[in-house]
Amino acid sequence: MEKIIVRPSGPLKGKIRIGGAKNAALPILAACLLGTEDIVLEDVPKLKDVEIMIEVLRELGVKVKYDGDLIVINSKNLTSYQTNYELMSKMRASFLVMGPLLARMGKAVNSLPGGCAIGSRPIDLHLKGFKALGAKVEMTHGNISAKADKLQANNIYLDFPSVGATENIIMTATLAEGETLIENCAKEPEIVDLASFLNKMGAKITGAGTSTIKIKGVQKLKGCYHQIIPDRIVAGTFMIAPAITGGDVLLENVITNHMKPILAKLEEAGAEVIVDDDKVRVIGKKKIYPFEIKTLPHPGFPTDMQAPFMALLTQAEGQSSIIETVFENRFMHAEELKKMGAKIKVVDREAIILGKSKLYGSKVNATDLRAGAALILAGLVAEGQTEISQIYHIDRGYENIVEKFQDLGADIRRIETD
Q1: Does the structural domain 2-19+230-416 have CATH classification 3.40.50.150?
Q2: For 229-265, what is each residue's pLDDT tens digit?
Q3: Which of 84, 116, 260, 354 stands 20 to 30 A from 91 (CA)?
Q4: Which residues are catalytic, by number?
């Protein structure tokens, strides 16, 4: 078992390049099932979740090979419409292959997806979309099957702007006959990247990034080249590092338009944020100001950033609050931060943080992916040694996180334990 050890590091300084976004790469990898020619992807992050998705594709008969920094994928000869239970149980995003399989093969059999235990993320909206497009959906013994002799376009209204459901329905509708209209869609940048990728393959999608998306079905999709957008959550995490340590960090390969709520909160905290095209420089100051956060679907403040920002707020001079509206069980990191001396009170979906807490190195657990990032940030300013367990969660979403923090001067290392 591996652990991450963090010690107080002083102001972090330097520059790093932000790699491709996990939450863009995963649906795009699933969408590769729709193509019948070579697809070349660049900036696919080397993460555990990506490895699992590639394994899922290979189990279905997809050819995947690495060519330097590129991944070449060919799904011309699919051999299966049924996914591997063991792989599916490891990662929620693996459910995104169901729509493409249904579109390509007329049938898909999936087990219920796994992932971080941050709250209820029902798949009913995915299934609602499949049914609306003409599929017959059945659920038996933990498996879900969908079958359609012919997919027919339809108008679909989502009860909630679910990112996963929006992605799955878009992918399914690309090969449906007629024009599909999806309303109350998720607007995340990763949705836009997926639509851009599919359009390069020959799909006809308009409106991605707005609440209404139109997909005019085509008979088949070809191959293409596509570079994955940079990861706005990884970028946000590394922006907090200089803010919490009083450092000075330059981040390269950033799409600042995707990060407006994050940049605004950093400035509200008192950090200096300098934007220059695809670069962002964050300079931390001695005083960190308290502020309030309310997580919302995009373009609101991203739920994935509230845990790292909670670490920052433990050092703010005054009382702050975070209201979580997206997931009902996403304050598990609060208990871990409290082990380090943070003063946090959680009531239902609101966390009150009394800042300027003296943090002490402790043995803590990465209860989920973003919680692990928050604990690393807290460890940078805690007295003594912070020992973080269950770091497999962190590895699911941060590529070479230890090495990148080391490049900025952090006293951080990964160790093997019995």
Answers
A1: no
A2: 999 999 999 999 999 999 999 999 999 999 999 999 9
A3: 260
A4: 116
